[in-house]
Amino acid sequence: MTEVGALPVEVTSFVGRREELRATRKLLAAARLVTLTGTGGVGKTRLALRAATEVRSSFADGVWLVELAALRDPALLAQTIGAALRLGDTGGDPSARLVEFLCDKKLLLVLDNCEHLGQALAELVHELLVVVPGLRVLTTSRHVLGLDGEHVFPVPPLAVPPVRDLAGAQALDVVKLFADRAAAVSAGFTVHSGNWPRVVQICHRLEGIPLAVELAAGWLRVLSVEELLARLDDFFALLRRGSAVVPARHRTLAGTVEWSHELCSSGQRLLWARLGVFAGGFDVTAVERVCAGDGIERDDVLDLLAGLVGSSVVQAERPAGTTRFRLLEPLRQYAQAKLRELGVCEELRDRHRDHYLGLAEQAARDWGHGPDQALMAARVRAELPNLRAALEHSLAGAPAVGLRLGVALEFLWLFCGHVAEGAHWLERALALNPEPGKDRARALWIVASSLAFRGGGEQAVALGREAEAWALEHDDADELAHARLVLGGCAFLGGDVDRAAALFRQAETDADGEVLLQILLAAAHTAVWHDDGEEALAVASRGLALCGEQFSRSGLLGIRGLAHWRLGSFAAAAEDLTAALRSARPFGDVLGAAKAVEFLAWTSAALGQPDRAAELLGTASAVWPLVGGRPLFGFGRMIDAHEACAADVASASGARFRPAYERGAAAVADLDSAIAFALGGGTPDERPAELSRREYEVARLVADGLSNKDIAERLVISRRTAESHVVHILDKLGFRSRSQIATWITRRAR
């Protein structure tokens, strides 16, 4: 020890955490009590010790670590702290002696692993802070102390974002940690071109939890990276043992989790086990409906859940104003093991299945009846991991329920960007449910729709005809309308425009509600390619007049824009197509967006904007693969129009064509970025509202990757003001994410 105080020497390197360190240092400069919270193994202690080391020069009387994990009797708190401070125990009141010793000191106390000491620790810390003005306290705990003036910093796992290459992998702190610990046990280990995808996958499977990553890397002394990845399914068994020099509580991840589990109340332990039935996140309603009963009163669920959140067992997240919860994967696996021990796995999975079946069927009933589709779609999309789990469980034991759930999710599969996945589930369900019935008929035309999108015309027609036959036999007008809509789509994509138009007319006679809007959309599309722009315009306008919801409105606007293009009303076409793109974005409607970007490219060319048209052609070329089928559906007349547009634009742009085309394609990282690029570069009248000078400055910093806190520091403004600027920028530009702002800034800089 070279300075006053007592901090342990680091025996392994400290990797990453630059932003967390900066945040912790800033809190310690501003507040007298800082608590680092987070799940076991996330790195609270290492972060606290490194932060304490870096601020040590600010404390004349040193920085002192007090390890509290082994302390079970709260009455011994003052003695334990005194011993860490090397304060001799001479009898008397330990608290009074501690106060007397500290009263004129300027020092930092690091109290590590405080969660099990509860109120006793809170009272002692409060007393010390009141009477010792030069004292600052940094605690690590699964719980906050709950004192006035306490500043809490939740320590996150190390980030494991998607990466595309070796350089991206090597830049990740979590990969650096894995490599450092692996090299310590396997001389010469490096992350290289041959192993980086598997290393990233290991880190992802461990959710970036540092302790888990370190323990896993330690097994490279006897396993290859490939073998380690393969064994992660038996995660806890693999990590059951560890280095003998590691403290017992940290010897294995399983030990860490077990240690946390012992600290929970019996009700919390039971709820923790039952939460293992969920996949991904969940909301409190799901917990109440799935986990209550047999030892947990429904009225107690919220308190028990709050306790688990406070203990860092459950993570609470608040996307879009709602609260969702989740277990990190190691803790979920532990919960599942406990659930198996209790012998109630199947019962809980049945409850889970029934809850999500009810959610799906309610969403299906509400889908076509109002303006809240985007919120509904977002909610159902957030539950996709749970819906997948419910489908898997149903198909394994109750195939009819699996079929019922699969068809209830029609809107998710067909309208929210999950077409191929829907076909995957429903093809399995159809194979397990060969008996005719309404659910089977619905599944047939849903799968047929998917096949048609992907070029499987003959099989799609066969399935559509089977659905049509069932509907005719049972006089089911709704199923008949859907079946004929699909058959008409197959005819259109096969180039038989006359037959498609006839089938859509037949389907319309049997239809109402949402399916009628889809039929009108298809009929208008067909009319455009039947060289009847006026009819297409009339049909699309009729659909828009009937439309009370957003999804069909997006498609109808796109087709009306195409009709305007066909009729030579190019400014009107651009207006409708831009509106269609904005409407498609909340649903993740890849197909609708692909068509709108393509048609907007044609319109830009017709408006005499060849460079912009070239960009949009490039963007469309990158979006069509996201659809999962053939570009432009393989429909000959659309392909002809595309090629004619590309030839005209190339001729008009000359040497500028290829760079512009590649610029448009390169702008597409995902659907959001594609839509942002298409919207951000329209004609002056179509561009979003201009940003103020300060907003543009903030937008540039967002594009540079700065957080709101970083922006506030850079511009010497409050964090709230920075957040407000970002919200206004998103609103003005019609964006949903910071990445879209970055794309917009990048394009304007070119």
Automatic annotation (TrEMBL):
Q: Can you name this protein?
A: LuxR C-terminal-related transcriptional regulator
CDD domains the record matches? LuxR_C_like
Molecular functions (GO terms): ADP binding; DNA binding
State the organism of origin: Amycolatopsis carbonis
- One of its Pfam families is HTH_77
Q: What PROSITE patterns is this protein classified in?
A: HTH_LUXR_2
Q: Where are the transmembrane segments?
A: none
HTH luxR-type domain: residues covered: 684-749
The superkingdom of the source organism is Bacteria
For biological process, the GO terms are: regulation of DNA-templated transcription
Q: Which PANTHER family match?
A: HTH-TYPE TRANSCRIPTIONAL REGULATOR RV0890C-RELATED, REGULATOR-RELATED
